[in-house]
Specification:
single chain, mainly alpha, 434 Repressor (Amino-terminal Domain), 4 helices, 0% strand
């Protein structure tokens, strides 16, 4: 797995674990929602500044975006329908 895909999977895993929608995350990080989607799919390369903003918006350390998963897993559970969004601080 390349680093872009690793960041993409961790970004989604952390966002879902915090019950934050892509819209809310994008708003808090000051990026477009469509760009957040591209980052989660691993189709765009974020800058270190963008990664820092995303980590701050999710109240996590930037290093968590680079954590490796145990072999054979992605660390992501499927989303349930009717998922909730969580309020997060906007900067």
């Amino acid at each position: 797995m390349d680093v872009r895909q690793l960041v993409a999977l961790n970004l989604r895993r952390l966002r879902v674990a915090r019950q934050i929608s892509q819209d809310d995350l994008a708003l808090a990080a000051g990026i477009e929602r469509s760009y957040a989607g591209h980052l989660e799919r691993g189709t765009k390369n974020p800058t270190i500044v963008t990664l820092e903003k995303l980590a701050q918006a999710m109240e996590c350390e930037i290093g968590e975006l680079f954590e490796k998963f145990p072999e054979g897993t992605t660390g992501i559970d499927p989303l349930k329908s009717g998922r909730r969004t969580a309020a997060i601080k906007t900067r």
